[in-house]
Design goal:
- By secondary structure, the chain is an alpha/beta fold.
- The chain contains 11 helices and 13 strands.
- It has helices at residues 2-5, 22-32, 42-58, 75-82, 97-109, 113-122, 131-134, 137-151, 170-178, 240-255, 296-306, and strands at 12-15, 36-39, 63-64, 88-94, 161-162, 181-192, 195-206, 218-225, 229-236, 273-274, 285-291, 313-318, 324-330.
- Strands 4, 5, 6, 7, 8, 9 and 10 form a 7-stranded mixed β-sheet that branches. The protein has a 3-stranded parallel β-sheet with strand order 1-2-3, sandwiched between helices. The protein has a 3-stranded antiparallel β-sheet with strand order 11-13-12, with no helix packed on it.
- A hairpin with a 2-residue loop joins strand 6 and strand 7 (195-206).
- It is elongated and about 80 Å long.
- The N and C termini lie far apart (54 Å).
- The relative contact order is 0.14.
Length: 331
């Protein structure tokens, strides 16, 4: 690979190796040698993008990474160019196809998590070690990139709150459906005052929302801007052709000398700090296993009242002959 990045007749390097070890050195060497770089490597950009983009700007070359987020969906170009007249207020995305496939199968076929995960691995959607996908690390890397572009901040992958889907059960899926919701694993970035929220976690979405109906391995990103309002970007989030589509689009941008400055923290006019998760106001879903006895529900609602938490919806159902019950609450 170093023969390529050091070759005097090569102008553009496409890095599709992955990882953050030797690839970081390859990209740095290519930039140092005055070569443009196109990468699909979300981990590299999320972890080292701040310094790499600065280094590219210093050397007057381009570092483009459309394929690093949501596969073939041109979401980075949309944020940088198509939505450039907007102040982005928020974005929410299904940006990991593996997790979305698992949740879709759990809902549509009443299958449990472990069963669907095994199929996902057999189909090649999930790795032998699925941690990056099912625990939200992959989505957090992509969210960090989207948020940096959307809000003009530095990449802040280490500050993304991350919660996976491995603890979601068929009971959770069933109760969410009964209440009119679909569970999706969302990456959410939101502007709040002088700060931003960065979080990846399972989310209950009303079945009436378009993004609730994004199923299988497909990806989608919902963006809210002050001028356009809400727009949805949907498509294949992975696969050879989807990734190639975005990589070649970046290559065409370089050939056509189209500018894409990646306006990150050092060019931003705002200093937006990431809000601590404990300070975020949000609705919550809770499923409690209780003894189905007189007074239990009153005690639970009393605790909610004590801490000034309102209850929006509630379901109580006995689940076995031992007088155990589920109480499901949405705040």
């Amino acid at each position: 690979p170093f023969e390529v990045v050091n070759h005097p007749e090569i102008d553009v390097v496409l890095e599709l190796i992955g990882g953050t070890g030797v690839t970081k050195k390859l990209v740095e060497t290519a930039i140092k040698n005055g070569k443009h770089v196109i990468t699909a490597n979300k981990a590299l950009i999320a972890k080292h993008g701040n310094k790499l983009i600065q280094f590219a700007n210093k050397n007057k070359v381009r570092l483009l990474f459309e394929a690093s987020v949501a596969g073939g969906i041109p979401i980075i170009k949309s944020l940088e160019q198509g939505l450039s007249a907007n102040k982005i207020e928020s974005l929410a995305g299904i940006i990991n196809g593996t997790g979305n496939f698992i949740l879709t199968e759990m809902k549509e076929k009443n299958r449990d998590f472990d069963d669907v995960l095994k199929e996902a691995q057999a189909l090649g959607y999930a790795e032998a070690d699925p941690t990056f996908d099912v625990e939200g690390i992959d989505a957090a890397q992509k969210l960090a990139i989207l948020a940096a572009i959307a809000f003009g901040t530095e990449l802040q992958f280490d500050k993304v709150f991350t919660k996976g889907i491995s603890n979601i059960t068929t009971e959770d899926i069933k109760y969410a459906t009964e209440l009119g919701y679909t569970i999706k694993h969302l990456g959410i970035a939101k502007r709040v005052g002088n700060g931003i929220e960065l979080r990846v976690h399972p989310t209950l979405i009303s079945n009436e929302e378009l993004i609730a109906n994004v199923n299988g391995v497909m990806n989608a990103v919902l963006v809210k801007g002050d001028a356009l309002g809400t727009s949805l970007y949907y498509g294949a989030g992975a696969g050879e052709e989807a990734t190639a589509s975005s990589v070649i689009a970046d290559l065409i941008d370089i050939i056509n000398n189209q500018t894409s400055n990646h306006i990150l923290g050092w060019k931003s006019q705002e200093k937006l700090t990431v809000i601590d998760t404990e300070s975020i106001d949000s609705e919550y879903y809770l499923r409690l296993l209780v003894s189905n006895m007189k007074g239990v529900l009153a005690k639970i609602t009393g605790i909610f009242h004590q801490y000034n938490v309102s209850i929006e919806e509630l379901i109580q159902k006995q689940i076995d002959e031992n007088n155990n019950a589920h109480i499901v609450i949405i705040t």
